[in-house]
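Example record used in the benchmark description.
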Amino acid sequence: MAVTVDAVAEPHSKSDEIAEAYPATAMERVNRKDQYRGGITWRVMIAAFIAANAGLIYGYSIGVTGGATTFPSWQARFFPILLQDVAADDSPYCKYDNQLLALFTSSLFLAGSIAAMGGGYFTDKFGRRVVMICGGALVLLGLILQCSAMSLGQLTAGRVIMGLGVGINIQAANMFLAEIAPYQWRGAINNMFQTFTTLGIFTGQVVTWQLLQYDIGGTTDGADWNWRLAFGICGAPGLIICIGSIFSFDSPAGLVKRGHLEEAQRVLRSIRGTDDIEAEYLDTLAARDVSNKCSNPWKTIGTLPYLPQLVIAVFMPLGQTLPGIDSVMFYSPQIFQTLGKNAETALLWAVILSGSQWVCTLIAVATVDKLGRRPLMIQGGVQMVVALVALGAMIATAGTGSDALAAAVLALMIIYAIGFAWSWGPLGWLVPTEIQPLETRSVGMAITTSTSLAITFLNGQAFPSMYCTMEYGVFLWFAAWMALATVFTIFFIPEVKNVPLEEIEELFFQHKLWGKLLAKVAAAKRMTKVDNNMELGRNSDASMQGFEQPKLVKK
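Model output (structure tokens):
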């Protein structure tokens, strides 16, 4: 069955020059979303649960490490300097200003950032499912090394190997979730990743809070099993994503891109719960045919037609991480200790903070496909800026050691965290996945994931020193970045609610700012559209052989 698009080439004085410089990208496609059939099935939900465990691993590694590093037994074995009392003339903000400690905690993110860049190649070459299997295996190997560590070198090596698995899992899982979801529910399905991330942070902090009471104290004598158990629990989601992906399936888009057309049809029928998949399958084929014209996706994403996707792929993770949420959640027990709370109370307050964030992430799941992406990001951004400015001002005027101040700081941190939870937390992963066409989706998500983890590494490495030297000013620094990210959202991010993945690219040509920049590309596309459609029709006829069989009946 050929795909046809009514088109009339319009003359343009510079069209030949533009077409030569920038070959046609995604063709203007027939708007077929009303012809998409099927909905959410149990196979989609099970596969989404398996993939979302990538978020659980990522979140748990943040929550458990921040808590376990406060265990006296862990400190005695790896960082005995932390057991020394803070001198009377030393600032309480500087107790955890130890670059070696910061390097250990943030090494996971550096390794993940490097791995994610390679993930762009591997997800295209071998598929999303295979990458998640390998990522889960790396997580398990890293955990074995960490749980059995007797030296800082082995502990750090295990964390680095685990970080490699985390990086490629984040990149592959977010693509997989977006590609298997019905377009009407893509936001909710994809937001399962961030929901599981915040659940992981909450679970990790609950575990460390409960296991702290069994700590053997500031000595390496005896069984320091509690922090080893705390790290080892992360093996459960590691096993789920590794073994579960073996029995799962790859996304239809990933299968089509690699030429497995019959399997893609079978999977699409299964996850949509209907035989009437023609419209969605044809759109995926059209995206594949365009993708095949791009021999080097890394080079392609750097050309003018893909400038909006490249800018958003870089800026979204900057807006998600530079406002410091990972640092605040990671070091929240230490922050509360600098305000005069003991280790047990500090961990309890960290549990309250992460629990609030997890609950409010569910709001994004419930509302993102109704309210849209932009309203949540703008409202959440404003809320975070206000909370961060108030937090910095309060610490600046009140100092430390006051119970009332500590309670107020907790309240403002909750306001800050829940604003992130229903906005930039989940949407920082969803929007970059959605806006990439098939030909640049893998490399686009590789750039987004790598940038996010790289900035998280830098934040984790710098936060103890920044907290020591800037004190309250660090929160004002975070607020400035959040304000910039909110302004960027207002002017540069289109609303993609209820738009199929393969039709989102056209929104940039209709966007007030991006549309002007891409006007030359649009002119070139009009000149080459007829030839492209003729070739697409021939390719589709070949690809659809065996497709219109008796079992394929429109209902």
